[in-house]
């Protein structure tokens, strides 16, 4: 990249940041602005993202349904102007340096993006997006140790037109800080909830429905196994959440959780072979007004120290990797020494 291009990219990014910073506080102009229907449906089948439309900049909703038979992720990266899906797909087969050259802004903790999603699930995340074209990429590992993005799981999402700044009405706020995840009283698992990072660090939220007698720790071990080898995860189902949420920022999740037992965690806070402080389990009863009985499950579970790629690894995959070996089902596979493919740097 030459200096002129770099300067232009920086300017574009700066302009976008300024636009977002200048937006009124959530809801401030709700009474005077006609709401724009600002949502897009994305479906995944056969290791593809089918993007059904585009979005306006500002506050925008992504509703993603995974109709495939394995777990996928949706990394979002703002692309340089003019970059096409074909170019992105080609770069994904070449590796990170090639991908980096197409990205205007390295994805990192920001306003929140969809989190890992299991087969048969739908998650809806409302976030802030600036105008431009975003690349959608999945870095879950395929059975042949190739990340899905390199196998074609790449798409683009266009964000353009007039801005939308009306925040969704929230039934409550799920707050994540440097010590835990805090659920609103009267949480029913149904409706739209704000997810706010009230800590000083970047956090995330991932929610899993757990099968009978399976702990969150065991299921996450299985998920980790999936992310490394492409084998199916057992013991539960990832029903969504918010990834890449920076300190002080708010996103929204729209949930439709049925009665059952759930685990939750902030994957970006995993620093060792145990669940982070920001984790726990709750049970939703059949009664829609039942509050969850929330328990923190982090300190009770520890596992063997796991060798990872080393301190240079950053980002979500590295975090998930740290869970390797703590789930009983995953331990044997972890010993095989597979490694998760490198993903776009998050910083
Ligand atoms: Cu995938």
TrEMBL record:
Q: Sorted alphabetically, which InterPro entries does this protein's record hold?
A: Cupredoxin
Q: Which residues form the signal peptide?
A: 1-28
Q: Which UniProt keywords apply?
A: Membrane, Signal, Transmembrane, Transmembrane helix
Q: Which residue stretches belong to region Disordered?
A: 275-302
**Which superkingdom?**
Bacteria
* Segments passing through the bilayer: 320-341
**Compositionally biased residues, Low complexity:** 285-302
Q: What is this protein called?
A: Copper oxidase
**Organism of provenance:** Flexivirga alba
In the record, what lineage is assigned to the organism producing the protein? Bacteria, Bacillati, Actinomycetota, Actinomycetes, Micrococcales
